[in-house]
């Protein structure tokens, strides 16, 4: 039986704590153990985030500067100075000795403080300075927030700084969903988890003794569609993350009910159903519950994903023999094959601007994450080493992706910068992690 | 096809296979009149639920496949024949065919592949005389591996359809 849940139970929280510990075991450990630096990182911009001063109140459990440093490092765009190399501790712009930071070859410096404003609320003020120009770029006081939400505040500041310097909206203050499988054989417990983009604050959304797969975020970030085998056969549910209430939306007794994908306006789900005798794509209108059939072939047609304009749908089909990526108008029509490099290509995801298509490319026994750039004549580049990588999922600003990999017998997740240069691993100490899905931008 | 012919066909398919020869050897003989008084009830050549545990052919419940393939290999034809005969002999029996895939490729695509293999076994059982109403197919894709190493030996064990009797 599956139990929709609003909060993680203590036992599961304990397991997930281990995830978090491994994922960000301090900046030093993360550097040596979890972040592969593959070269080309010279292009990353050096930035120092000085530990924030704390004015009054009990010691805080969150180190705001730490959270931001990890965000910047993970992005691949920045290289933040290790905490242990920070020699001076200014907390406001007027205290910065720029010569010190120039000597340490830093381009940008972030300073700030956290003030206790009473009733368990804190307020963060920060400044961003250009070290070489000795120029203030940002100086902002964040709205008061509960002390327990300091990580969220830190991610939001990191997003603002990221956008100020790169011109691209930051996606650190976002959430991810994934599936965990703990235990062996018939004693496996599957959980659908939602966590912060850095793996913190994991919450159990649903739990089952049978497989869960293919979580998909609604465009407003409030719901997840997913596939569950809890009834014996596959069926598709849509669950509200905050209330835990859920709807069964596809459960044909015969065949597969799988591969849900939200339309950009949130009104429809593209799904793969086989009650008609063969696995075909359908578009389900969520209000009317009407199904419109989209494909008609003797092949496997599955893994739909919508183009951002909602006009077309990419999907996996083996109509040419091996699985390849195809594109079909969302209103129906003739599918066009778009992937031609590699023996097989499957499980596509599309960047927010529609320019990049991430997919799993199989050559021999090696399956790697590949990105096809539609704006560059469909050039393909590899993002992961394989051999059994899958489930690519773009961050909402396409600066990073999540994907699933296998290490030994264990499933792990990687967060990788879009240039493939910086990778960070998300591990469950006692079980598998798989099926990552990066959520949309959050609204305040 | 009359029954005798059908049985003969099954017997033919089982030639050389000690695995499923037992039933067919019994059938062509007349009722064993000189049999000892402790002999089990007279067999009419039809399978009984007990045979699911004892018959060497019926006890084989797994069909294996080549990579990305759904064709039933010749070595599994005799299994198709004896399970089809069981379905005929026991019209109230019911089989769930559980399709599975190896770990390569995505989960949803492998769901499709597992179903296609399940359908291939279902078609073969029907071609051998089983009835569609006695058969259902479910695909687990790569969700239920029996082996978790990353090599062909292991993958070949996972590319399978399991024959599960939900009613005997």
Structure report:
In chain A, 13% of the residues lie in helices and 43% in strands. Chain A is mainly beta. In chain A, the strands form seven sheets. In chain A, strands 2, 3, 4, 5, 6, 7 and 8 form a seven-stranded mixed β-sheet that branches. Chain A is globular. In chain A, helix 3 crosses helix 5. The N terminus of chain A is likely disordered. Chain A folds into two domains: 129 residues, Rossmann fold (3-Layer(aba) Sandwich); 264 residues, Neuraminidase, CATH 2.120.10.30. By secondary structure, chain B is an alpha+beta fold. Chain B has a single domain, classed as 60s Ribosomal Protein L30, Chain: A (2-Layer Sandwich), CATH 3.30.1330. Chain B contains six helices and four strands, in the order H-H-H-E-H-E-H-E-H-E. A four-stranded mixed β-sheet of chain B has the order 1-4-2-3. In chain B, helix 4 crosses helix 5. The longest helix of chain B has 21 residues. The N terminus of chain B is likely disordered. At the A-B interface, strand 20 and strand 24 of A face helix 5 and strand 3 of B.
Brief sketch in words of this structure:
Chain B: One of its GO terms (cellular component) is cell outer membrane. Chain A is mainly beta and 444 residues long.
What's the SSE blueprint?
The complex is a heterodimer of chains A (444) and B (168).
Chain A: H1 10-23, H2 26-34, E1 35-37, E2 45-49, E3 53-55, H3 64-75, E4 78-80, H4 98-103, E5 108-118, E6 121-130, E7 135-141, E8 145-146, H5 150-166, E9 175-182, E10 189-196, E11 203-208, E12 212-217, E13 223-228, E14 235-240, E15 246-250, E16 257-262, E17 268-273, E18 280-285, E19 291-293, E20 301-306, E21 312-317, E22 324-329, E23 336-337, E24 344-350, E25 356-363, E26 366-373, E27 379-382, E28 390-394, E29 400-407, E30 410-417, E31 422-426, E32 432-438
Parallel strand pairs in A: 2-4, 2-5, 3-5
Antiparallel strand pairs in A: 1-31, 5-6, 6-7, 6-8, 9-10, 9-32, 10-11, 12-13, 13-14, 14-15, 16-17, 17-18, 18-19, 20-21, 21-22, 22-23, 24-25, 25-26, 26-27, 28-29, 29-30, 30-31
Helix pairs in contact in A: 3-5
Chain B: H1 3-13, H2 21-26, H3 51-54, E1 62-64, H4 77-89, E2 94-100, H5 107-127, E3 135-141, H6 152-158, E4 160-167
Parallel strand pairs in B: 2-3
Antiparallel strand pairs in B: 1-4, 2-4
